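Annual report, structural modelling task.

Input specification for the zinc ion complex:
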Amino acid sequence: MSNSDLISRVRAREILNFLGNPTVEAEVSLSDGSCGRAAVPAGISVGSSEVGQLLDGDQKRFAGKGVLKAVRNVQEVIGPALKGMSASRQEMIDNKLLELDGTSNKSRLGGNAILAVSLATAHAAAANKKLPLYRYLGGEGPFALPVPAFDMLEGGAHAQNSVDFQEYLVIPAGVSSFREALEAGVAIFHALLNLLQKKGGSIQPTGPLAAPLKSNQEGVEAIASAIETAGYRLGKQCFIGIDAATSELYKDGKYFLRCEKRELTSSEMDNLWSEWIDTYPIISIEDPMSEEDWDGWQAITRHIGERVQLVGDDLFTTNPEIVKKGIALGVANAVLIKPNQIGTLSETLETIRIASEAGWAAMLSTRSGETEDATITDLSVLSGCGQIKTGPPRAKSVVKHNRLLRIEEELGGEAKYKGVQAFRKLSPESG
Ligand code: PGA
Ligand code: ZN
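The model returned the following structure:
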């Protein structure tokens, strides 16, 4: 037993994310001089069960979005308490963080303060063992390179004057490597840009496109046609995904589709999805129903859950207990994984484990307000879950894509591109 991995110092600072908003970055240093760093992303459309991000609320700084209180919590409360603990005991560290916070939603110290330290500890322990994070946490594997789901066209809460559904994704599950998937993403983005610019579309600050289309279906048509224009076979090499983020559209029991000037009941929404999957090669629908509409969720899972991946994001908020409830009730068949929705690495990994034990898929995901922290790429590789959702291969998302290119090269023949196997509903054997 060596004592080289004992935590000697925990620091934090306020940095900026790619939206220009403050966020927490933490650094954990160990007795042997190893150091790990991590930063926390932020969402724009936030599920109601997500852990609280502690913001200063001081209107004189960053319109109240400063995180100096969370930084202080790391330096003054968390740091001294973790000093001398072994960084390799991730669960023990995370339990200590939960205990120090003492609330059910991490609101005292802040989910941002807690997650930054939780992830930085794992990075420090990996540095101590001189291993990349995926190998430190994933041992001998098996590892897999994830299929990227590129958010190409945005609407809803993510874009003004665009479609209602939040994300239209291109999923190159039928190509043979991550590198090829990335190349497809670049070509398809350019084809889509060209197409949507003619319809008044433009590039969003976060990377994807937005366009004032007349219907939500026109968005899917545009994605399908961009895939083909770029020279990829639709429904063979490249597929379509949707993050409808319908919690943002749901009011008084109805779904409001603003750009089509109509409102749908839960069962009409259900029918819209079943028509869409009959018409287009859509292999994944995230938040097809609102987080408040569990009955609607249950109905749609019964109705089309055998044919398409139904991913809970706002519904589950990466929370192991809520995912267990979903499994028990037959609600959804996949979970979106965003570590900052739940606040510690151990809980994030537990949610992935619970999902895979139930035969569910898990999709790691970036958030609207990302940083250069690429921890989720390693989590996607080590969990073998085979799916990662990002923006298009440009702007903030290339931080994640470039990290995956390096991992793909590093692992060589040891890890395969998960491809269509990541989508159980897709493989012909699944019936
Ligand atoms: P967010 O969006 O980062 O704004 O929450 C991503 C998503 O809903 O999946
Ligand atoms: Zn979502």
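The mean pLDDT is 96.
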